[in-house]
Amino acid sequence: MEQMIDAAIIGGGPAGLSAALVLGRARKSVVVIDEGRPRNRVTRETHGFLTRDGISPGEFRRVAKEQISAYPTVHFVEDAAVSITGTDGHFQITTAQGQIYQSKKLLFAAGMKDIPLDINGLSEVYGKSAFVCPYCDGWELRDQPLVLIVKGDRALHSAKMLSGWTSQITICTDGPDEWTDEQREELKLHNVPTFNSPILRIESSDGMVKQIVLEDGTIVPCTGIFFAPKLAAGSDLPQTLGCKVTEAGTVFVDMFGKTNIPGIYGAGDAATELYQAITAASMGSLAAVGINSELLAEAWNSRV
Ligand SMILES: Cc1cc2nc3c(=O)[nH]c(=O)nc-3n(C[C@H](O)[C@H](O)[C@H](O)COP(=O)(O)OP(=O)(O)OC[C@H]3O[C@@H](n4cnc5c(N)ncnc54)[C@H](O)[C@@H]3O)c2cc1C
Predict the structure, then answer these.
(1) For the whole model, what pTM was predicted?
(2) What is the β-pairing status of strands 90-95 and 81-87?
(3) Which of 118, 166, 204, 249 is the most exposed place for a label (fewest CB within 10 A)?
(4) pLDDT tens, position by position, 96-111
């Protein structure tokens, strides 16, 4: 695409698609470059998105793209952005397939990605009976015997949160628990069984966990697992362009998605640690308003 477009959006999940919808309706030219590897592709259903509770991630994207297609200035490209140069008003994006796009503004909506899971059997159940967020999947596992795989300071927080969905919680720390005596005492007071032997394997059938086998021979039966995933930024490109990022790898943004680098915006999982589809969509919408306001002001001022 030779011509200068108003905004290039990197990532076509809830954040990027929501931004594309708002910018398309604002009559801005947009390209959404998406390689199609969202973190939630392992899961069958997305919950908690008003009017879309239980929709599959694939169907969510299909409906979104169908609706956005009504706005002729938005174009979708199935490709990965591999390098970006330039500054506010003129960015140049090169893709893995060798295409070049030029845009006035940039929006990073590239999400986060999982670092491969290192527990034997976890990838078979991830997204089916092992999850990362009780708000997303706690309801489906309510009142069931669940295992939390967690250690250190996060354990108490996670146990407290999960207690809203079930009272049958067991913690497996998969190695040294890294707790203080007070933390151990608090878990004991709340009758939370804990095991610190390393996990040998997770046994399951058709994605549904049956039990966790520990190295010391202990068997922990359960019907669901929650664990803390290890994550990395979906794209390193914001950092290469000078955007400030948090320790978790998310881009620092203001309410309208603006980063510290002029013309560059961030939205969704790439810019918050509240990993929720509706939050991502909301941030995409706000970033689109930010981008549109900036484009309108620039066009207005250039006329005098
Ligand atoms: C197992 C699991 C279950 C979940 N369940 C729920 C749920 O029930 N309810 C809920 O609200 N949330 C849920 N989530 C969280 C939810 O999926 C995310 O919060 C949401 O998808 C974030 O949207 P996003 O647009 O920011 O990023 P994503 O949806 O991750 O989309 C980012 C896109 O950018 C693309 N991309 C990355 N880098 C590049 C690049 N360089 N060039 C081009 N494209 C690129 C990726 O391939 C991807 O397609 C779940 C997450 C997981 C992991």
Answers:
(1) 0.96
(2) antiparallel
(3) 118
(4) 999 999 999 999 999 9
User: Each residue of 197-211: b (16+ CB within 10 Å) or e?
Assistant: bebbebbbeeeebee
Which residue from 151, 198, 148, 190 is spatially nearest to 170, judged by alpha carbons?
148
d(CA 18, CA 16): 5
With beta carbons less than 8 A apart as the criterion, state whether 145 and 221 touch: yes
How many Å from the N-terminal Cα to the C-terminal Cα in the chain? Answer: 30
* pLDDT tens sequence across 253-267: 999 999 999 999 999
Which amino acids bring their CB within 6 angstroms of ligand 1? Answer: 10-16, 33-40, 42-43, 46-49, 80-81, 109-111, 127, 131-132, 136-137, 234-235, 268-270, 275-278, 280
Q: Which of 50, 76, 122, 133 to mutate to test the pocket of ligand 1 (most atoms within 8 A of CB)?
A: 133
